[in-house]
Design a protein that fits this description.
Number of helices: 5
Structural class: mainly alpha
Order of helices and strands: HHHEEHH
Shape: globular
CATH topology: Cytochrome Bc1 Complex, Chain D, domain 2
Largest sheet: 2 strands, antiparallel
CATH architecture: Orthogonal Bundle
Helix content: 40-55%
Strand content: 5-15%
Oligomer: single chain
Number of strands: 2
CATH class: Mainly Alpha
Length: 154
């Protein structure tokens, strides 16, 4: 019974998440409020504004404004060991994910629907995530995302 309630809750949250990601209005971003640390040198030159906008419209409902996620429900993106596998991160955005996964030693068993983002949008949002909340990494390119998308289709 408890498992069914958890599953139904996850599905309801996923449905809300998908609904929020539909026709997205442009967010109003208060420049006085920032939750992300300054971009790392590796991505300092990348344009993270578009990525932040996409994050706020698509990811923030589950992973939260500060990237901390929701304990036991939605994994953190801040200081996340899952981010070490760039290909897996891209695949998860493209295909979604159901079932258990371990992030930073904690189990999360929720559903993430596939995101309706093009290659440029995925590259932008991942560049933003990798340059925020004490994460680090090189900027993503649309070409990198396309290569993963093409490999997944096969």
């Amino acid at each position: 019974m408890k498992h069914n309630i958890v599953l139904l809750s996850a599905l309801a949250l996923s449905a809300l998440f998908v609904a929020c990601g539909g026709d997205k209005p442009k967010p109003v971003i208060d420049s006085a409020v920032t939750s992300a640390a300054a971009p790392t040198e590796a991505v300092a030159d990348a344009d993270t504004d578009k990525g932040k906008e996409i994050y706020n419209n698509t990811c923030k409902a589950c992973h939260q404004e500060n990237g901390q996620g929701v304990p036991k429900t939605f994994p953190p993106l801040a200081k996340s060991d899952f981010l070490s596998d760039r290909k897996a991160v891209i695949e998860q955005i493209i295909n979604g994910k159901t079932g258990a996964m371990i992030v930073n030693g904690e189990e999360y068993n929720s559903a993430m629907p596939p995101q309706k983002l093009n290659d440029e949008e995925i590259a932008a949002v991942l560049t933003y995530v990798y340059s925020s909340w004490e994460n680090s990494g090189e900027a993503f390119t649309a070409e990198e995302v396309k290569a993963v998308r093409d490999a997944v289709k096969k």
